[in-house]
Fold this sequence. Notes:
Elements: H1 3-16, H2 20-41, H3 44-65, H4 92-106, H5 113-129, H6 135-158, H7 167-181, H8 187-193
Amino acid sequence: MRPERYANAHLRKAMESNGVHRRRVEVRKYLVIARVLVRVTGEKECVKRAKKEVKSLGRLRDLKVASCIPLPHYELGDLDMKDCMLRKVFGSRLLVAERVFLLYHELNKEMKLHPLRKTIREALFLLESLGIVDDRLKALAKELGRLRDQQLMAQLCEGKEIDFDVDELRLKAKDFIRELLSTTEFYHIKYKLHDKNNI
Length: 199
């Protein structure tokens, strides 16, 4: 699979969606690829628009999660980003795989729930764009999302800050991502993954 094709398919789904959560997920799947490829495509404006959409939908979703806060009826407007479809980029798979390798390294320092969740979710979507789908990594990302929702509810509804020990989930994610990256066609990444300094 080509990452550009993955990104464009999810952007189309986002433009067809009228649900807050669904649209946000689809735009985010487009965004993680567009950000990696922007240095080649030069489509900075599309990245900016997608980031703005994710951010505004994120505020709404957080309030929906915190069910103690009544929300007025809200209807999503049309999302028109047809001009942001990504063109074919030579070497896109390599750029995406290298970004996943960088995220794999970042897991060494992500000790807090929210940044850990963001890193794992980005790696999950990037791997999917390479045609690598893994139920274990999906389940792990889902569990981190559930914990994050608990955090938000405590913060917004009770004014309490709570945290979770996510070290075990972090180490599992590292193992999964290392294994999945090893299945790619990029031998230099496989070599680096087997270097003891990169474990």
